[in-house]
Design a protein that fits this description.
Layout: E1 4-6, H1 8-22, E2 29-36, E3 41-48, E4 55-58, E5 61-64, H2 66-79, E6 82-89, H3 99-103, E7 113-117, E8 131-137, E9 140-144, E10 151-153
Parallel strand pairs: 1-3, 1-10, 6-7
Antiparallel strand pairs: 2-3, 2-6, 4-5, 7-8, 8-9
């Protein structure tokens, strides 16, 4: 997987935005939007799925309707961006991918990173706490253990 560069500001915004939208009682989700090159990916903004139309969420699930997904992709095109990563919370410390997560990423693109943030994004934003997974294609995923090798947090936007 290519390294992902995200500013400290957007990293912290991701956690606080997901925490706020989930209200400490349900999962929440966003995508990191930005640029992808052959060597790296760079996050330029966070787009919260909860802010799109027709999104449903519960304690252990989060689903964007076709209308929500269509609105998201229109917004990305308008800003000249691509999806860098699919990010969502889980209710507890487990940061693996559920069967539902594996079957319903925001896009089916080999190389897509899926990031799982534990405990509904409560607590401090620690890179060591997250789960990082890469979509390999054909319904297959792999968990990447050394997150710091792939997720580069720091600097400003």
């Amino acid at each position: 997987m290519k390294p992902i560069f995200i500013s400290l500001q957007l990293w912290n915004e991701t956690w606080s935005g997901l925490r706020k939208r989930g209200g400490a009682r349900r999962e929440s989700a966003c995508i990191w939007a930005g640029d992808r090159t052959k060597d790296s990916e760079r996050v330029s903004r966070v787009v919260y799925l909860d802010d799109l139309p027709d999104v449903t969420a519960g304690m252990k699930h989060h689903r964007a309707s076709r209308e929500a997904t269509r609105a998201l992709f229109q917004d990305l095109r308008k800003h000249g961006e691509q999806i860098v990563a699919d990010v969502h919370t889980h209710p507890r410390a487990w940061v693996g991918l559920s069967t539902v997560d594996e079957e319903h990423p925001i896009e089916f693109r080999p190389g897509l990173p899926a990031i799982v943030i534990p405990n509904l994004a409560r607590g401090s934003p620690r890179v060591e706490a997250i789960g990082l997974h890469e979509y390999l294609g054909h319904g297959r995923w792999q968990r990447l253990e050394e997150v710091q090798l792939y997720l580069k947090i720091g600097g400003s936007e």
